[in-house]
Amino acid sequence: MNTTSAHAPEWHPVAPSHHLRAGDNIVAAFAKGEELALWRSEDGAVQAWENRCPHRGLRLTMGRVLNGRLSCAYHGWEYAPDGRCAAIPANPSLPLPKNVRVRAFSVEERNGMVWVSTEAAGASPSSPAQTDREPHFCRSLGIRLEASVVENRLARNDFDREGPWAWRGELAGQRVALLINEVGHGLTLIHAWLDQRPNVRQARAVQAALRLLRRDLEAGAQKRRQA
Amino acid sequence: MTFQCDDRTVFDDWLTVGPNKRLTGRSESNPYRTRLLSSEVKIWRDEQGKVAARCGDSTLMIQDAYGYLWICPSGTPTKPIFSFPEYAEPGRRIVDCDGIGVAVSGLRMVENFLDMGHFPYVHAHYLGEVPQTEVAAYEVNVDESADEIWATNCRFFQPKTSKSATTGLDVQYRYRVMQPMSAILYKTAFPRPGEMDAIGLFVQPHDEEHITAYCLLAYYDDTSTETDLLSFQHTIFGQDKPILENQRPRRMPLQPGSEVPTRCDAMSVAYRRWLKARGTSYGAVR
Prior knowledge:
The complex is a heterodimer of chains A (about 230) and B (about 290).
Chain A: E1 11-16, E2 26-31, E3 34-40, E4 46-50, E5 64-66, E6 69-71, E7 78-79, E8 85-87, E9 104-110, E10 113-117, E11 136-143, H1 147-156, E12 160-163, E13 166-171, E14 174-184, E15 187-194, H2 200-219
Antiparallel strand pairs in A: 1-10, 2-3, 3-4, 4-9, 5-6, 6-7, 7-8, 9-10, 11-15, 12-13, 13-14, 14-15
Chain B: H1 8-11, E1 15-19, E2 32-36, E3 39-45, E4 51-55, E5 58-65, E6 68-72, E7 93-102, H2 106-113, H3 119-122, E8 139-143, E9 148-158, E10 169-179, E11 182-189, E12 192-207, E13 210-219, H4 226-244, H5 266-278
């Protein structure tokens, strides 16, 4: 079974699509050492920006989306979806600086998940969940391990690699897709999806199984199978 | 060297370690302990009432000024402590607001203190209000003889400039940077529009990314209670804290181009240039 690829894939699964509401909220996310601010413009397009205002370095996730622009919480500087600075409220009569723009990354949405490439160009991500059903988002959980270690241990726990950062397996009798999100600094997020919408009892069982999986992964333990 | 600091300008400066009221009930055997430049310092008053301080086995140069304790880590200060004439001016009320811990570089803290552009966003309904966001042009000068920076002719419309303010006011400001980590701002006193209140900001660097920011008021205000004045000032500082702790990086970038200023940042630009020219690097990106 293939457990590690020769090159780290360059697209990273960073957040479920439905967490981003058009022209509304800003979501913090991570991709391989980069801290991101995600937001969805009014036309539905997702923006993945470096989480840092070019003016004084404030995290853009502290800001808000106003009239289709991201407004920084420190001085109200506004950035249009193309990343350009579109307003400086402290100097409203000055022409806008042309060269001020937020650093932006490539974004793709696939099967309900936002994928980001921290490199300028690249191939589209492989579909994380090869299913004709709409996958059901379960939860994201943090694992205090490097992503490569998480992947090695998933392989030892009867999960199968389905694509870059994408793993398939079973938890509490449910088919799951686990998308591995390398945060950096020894932290990895697992975004867990279910093939089918669970009932309340099944959802509780999967949540419990995920917590056990986290414990086993962090402890380096071999597979555990629930009754 | 007992301190972790290779920046001579900070090493030879006067750094605060908090208000002198910390020494109440303290002695050489039971000193006030605090952290400065990554080392623990012990401070007490001897039997003559004189302040004394030690770091490890080394005796430190310390003085008591403006109700605050000041240590010169190297023992060879470049200059005497800055003047603060308003502290002793008759008619002013001195209120020590004590400190608030912030996980940021001392330089970022001082820059925030010198900034009017953030008033309507970070201090909405108090020190500013959208849509009155414009920062009018002001003057910045470096006083070469005192090695201080001044910003003058600053003004900003404020909905509630201080505890005693009952209406909005077009407030005049002056800013003064005496040291990399000490500054005073002067602003129109609401009860006496011809006079200016003074607010001192003294930063204790625990290390390059952790500070306590102390605040001392020299106010014209005969009506507000001390609790009200403290509460107002802590409300303002409490609004700045989450902003300061979410700046990336925590240290101040001094390389031109790493952050983009605009015209209203003239004071911040002058501050960064002054730091760079005098070789201050403690708390800066190196």
